[in-house]
Amino acid sequence: MTQPEVVEDLPVPAGRSGCPINLATELLGDRWSFVILRDLMFGGPRHYRDLLAGSREGIASNILTSRLEKLTAVGLLTRHTDPGHRQKVRYRLAEPAIELLPVLVALGVWGNRWLPADPEIGSTAAALHEGGERLQQCFMEELRAEHLEGREPDPAGLRAGFATPAHASRSSDRR
Predict the structure, then answer these.
(1) Distance of CA 92 to CAs 43, 45, 132, 147, Å?
(2) Torsion angle, alpha carbons of 135, 111, 30, 173, to 10
(3) Total-model pTM
């Protein structure tokens, strides 16, 4: 009986970024929905313009508009009027999207293992995976406080601890 061949990475192009979630969803399905969920999950509630300008992958404005409408229509996102600017809305995760955290972590871990992912960007998924269900539940509680209750993020919270230069530059744009 022959041994299976050990493969370092699947033979796929590196994509537009080294983000393991983007790479996995490019391979498996609608990457833009997962990328939007990733940005809101790990960067906090955002305005449309922040999602567009902060996209590492370079999402087109018409695609972003379409996906935000779809994700809102199916109940994964909610729209909230910005009290500081009535013509702007902020997008937040709804409970079903928050509960996708373990899926995004699993995609990230899979992407770190099989795709040419940037280890720095993939470190958040790796840390959440290594911390297990308990750490993921704690992070989901922080997401609920911020996205469902509208509270400010805890500066000593898990997301602050996960901040990498790649994520930190996106998180600072969110307010």
Answers:
(1) 11, 5, 25, 5
(2) 60
(3) 0.78
Cα distances (angstroms) measured from residue 166 to each of 62, 74, 131, 148, 162: 25, 30, 21, 25, 11
Q: Helices 123-130 and 132-143, interaxial angle, to 10°? A: 120
Q: Please state the separation of Cα 37 from the chain's center in Å.
A: 5
- Strand 77-82 to 46-47 pairing: unpaired
In whole angstroms, what is the distance from residue 150 CA to residue 4 CA?
Answer: 50
Q: Helix, strand, or coil here: 59?
A: coil
pLDDT tens readout for residues 33-65:
889 999 999 999 999 999 999 988 999 999 999
Residues with Cβ < 8 Å from 66, sequence gap 6 or more? none
At which residue do the structure tokens 């996209």 appear? 55
d(CA 26, CA 28): 6
> What is the sign, positive or negative, of the torsion defined by CA atoms of 23, 163, 170, 151?
positive
Going from the C-alpha of 53 to that of each of 17, 58, 93, 134, 165, the distances in angstroms are 15, 8, 19, 33, 17
